[in-house]
Amino acid sequence: MHEEAVLKDLLKKVDSVARAHGVDRVASVRLWVGALSHFSERSLRERWALAAPGTVARGARLDVVVSEDRSDPRAQGVVLVSLEPVPPEPAPRRPLATGARNPESPPSP
Hints:
It contains two helices and three strands, in the order αβαββ. By secondary structure, it is of the alpha+beta class. The protein has a single domain, classed as hypothetical protein PF0899 fold, CATH 3.30.2320.50. The longest helix is centred in the first third of the chain and has 19 residues.
């Protein structure tokens, strides 16, 4: 249960950071996992796959760095390190109006 609450908080933070930067979706999320956090990389990935759909992190790659430093002040936590946004879709290209007449079209009266 504790892991689910931590993951839910992480996803809220991902959403908050993404929205603050005008990002609708993220391509990847990088997490740092403390040595005493009780998360394994495997369990984190499994829970992420279940929790991310329906969020800005849907389909995002999860990069996890697991620390072995038990003396780190953050050793019991999981830290959001960075997000990579999904690039915006390019705007559809429209032909520019030049005022030139198409030579195959009949002349206007």
